[in-house]
Amino acid sequence: MPQIRSLSINGRELRLLRYGRVDSTQRITRGLPVETVVIADSQTAGHGRYGREWVSPPGGLYTSIVLAPDPLLPLRAGVAVAEALSGCGVPARLKWPNDVTVDGKKIAGVLIEEADGAMILGIGVNLDRVPYPGATSVRAAGGRVTAPEELLSCILRVLLAPTADDAILTRYRALCATIGTEVSISIGRGLIRGRAVGIEPDGALIVSTAAGARRIASGECRHLYGRGIRSS
After folding, report:
1. What is the pLDDT of residues 134-176, one digit of tens each?
2. Which residues contact 215 (CB under 8 A, 6 or more apart)?
3. Three-state secondary-structure class, residue 29
4. What single-letter DSSP state applies at residue 44?
5. Could you count the other beta carbons within 10 Å of the beta carbon of residue 77?
6. Alpha helix (H) ranges present in the chain?
7. 182-230 to CATH, choices 3.10.450.50, 2.40.128.110, 2.30.30.100, 3.40.47.10
8. Nearest residue to 104 (alpha-carbon basis) of 177, 171, 207
9. Does the pLDDT value for residue 232 go beyond 70?
10. Which strand ranges, in their side-by-side order, compose the sheet holding 99-102?
């Protein structure tokens, strides 16, 4: 059974359920009321976008939050995680749409799923350990390693602040390492390659290609470095 308590953020009372080891905080959170937060010490079946495994050993932040629908949540969540990590001394950047990286290495991931008329925001942050080659952690990046709940509170304070959409968009663009970078975007079985030149107000990525500008609402983005491709 979880430990249950209230979490006060920006004058709002959230319900926090704390677990030890779970299969997935995303699964546990389904069906719970809006403004419920689930946090776990580790996960055995954590996953990210496209069902990819999110390695979740003890020593990281693994949380899912039930929120009211918000079309800009992908950008808002990315900004919240990156800015919270910056407060820990980590120079975090964003790879469209909301991967959080340091020097091209992934330090945190964001997953958004819809269920029962709500949005479930999953966040995983590597705090103490680097879970796989090519990733990084707060400790490895030279940042201040905080307790998972402390970092969660920092993220929630940004996420739940009454911030206008245009202000979130401005902050997202400032943090986005994708803008100005050569990219390849996988959309289904198709592939678009070009230079990312901007972010639309709804969060879509604008890519300049040999055939002209393309507006991309969703897809898997890879930054191209030299002759190789690295997915951060």
Report:
1. 899 999 999 999 999 999 999 999 999 999 999 999 999 999 9
2. 200, 204, 205, 206
3. helix
4. S
5. 26
6. 25-29, 73-86, 148-159, 165-175
7. 2.30.30.100
8. 177
9. no
10. 3-9, 12-22, 36-43, 60-67, 118-126, 105-115, 99-102, 93-95
Tell me the pTM: 0.90
Instruction: Please tell me the distance from the alpha carbon of residue 169 to that of residue 116, in angstroms, as a whole number.
Output: 27
Query: What Å distances lie between residue 144 and 88, 137, 157, CA to CA?
Result: 5, 10, 18
Domain extent listing, the chain: 3-175, 182-230
pLDDT digits (tens, 9 = 90+) for 87-141: 999 999 999 998 999 999 999 999 999 988 999 999 999 999 888 888 999 999 9
Question: What CATH number does the domain located at 3-175 have?
Answer: 3.30.930.10
